[in-house]
Amino acid sequence: MRKCLILLALPVMMLCSCAGKSTQPDRLPEEYSAQLEISDNGREYSAALRADKGGWEYEFTAPESIKGLKLSKNAESFTAELEKLKLSDSVEKLGGSSPAVMIADALDMCRSGKGITAEVKGGKTVNKGVVNGADFTVTFDDGVPCSMEIGGEIAVSLKGFRAG
Questions:
Q1: pLDDT tens, residue by residue, 110-157
Q2: CATH (one of 1.10.540.10, 2.40.50.1070, 2.50.20.10, 2.60.40.10) for 28-163
Q3: 16, containing H or E segment
Q4: pTM score, two decimals?
């Protein structure tokens, strides 16, 4: 009888031990690129994002009013370019509440793994963190980022993600 109880209790103990395991956050590679569809409080944007260990660069493709705008950041400076106009300043003067900056900073956190927790929802890994005072999530499907949400106001769809 005692052996039967032990055999019956073993599967229950195994199920309980699995529930206690923490999920490791998915990490982004050092260099990557993706097409972004961004929704920020009813405004819609499209951009190509490229990132490497030196920084990141956006090139906006929509709406028409900002098409061709390039925003880039490296360790020393932030630059905005549109046609023949080019403005640069130190990184310290760059505000952190811009959607472009918040998106890049959240993805940088997913790259480094610092300040990130994760859970599995519907078979996908959801990385969670806080960027510039706002909660964010980045959802990964088989290790590839597919969507992001920041502060309940910014939603991002990542398409054509490529490492390198």
A1: 999 999 999 999 999 999 999 999 999 999 999 999 999 999 999 999
A2: 2.50.20.10
A3: helix 2-19
A4: 0.83
Torsion on CA atoms 56, 59, 60, 61, rounded to nearest 10? -140
**What distance in Å separates the CA atoms of residue 135 and residue 143, rounded to the nearest whole number?**
21
**Type of residue found at 50:** R
User: In which residue ranges of the chain is pLDDT below 70?
Assistant: 1-22
Phi-psi category of 123—alpha, beta or left, where left has phi over 0 and alpha has psi -120 to 50? Answer: left
3-state DSSP assignment of residue 112: helix
Instruction: Residue 31: count other Cβ atoms within 10 Å of its Cβ.
Output: 14
Place of tokens 């360790």: 75
- C-alpha torsion angle, residues 128, 104, 108, 52 (rounded to 10): 150
Position 28: which residue type?
Answer: L
- Please say whether the beta carbons of 60 and 47 come within 8 A: yes
Half-sphere exposure of 150 (CA within 13 A, CB side): 24
Q: What is the pLDDT of residue 94?
A: 77
Return the domain boundaries, the chain: 28-163
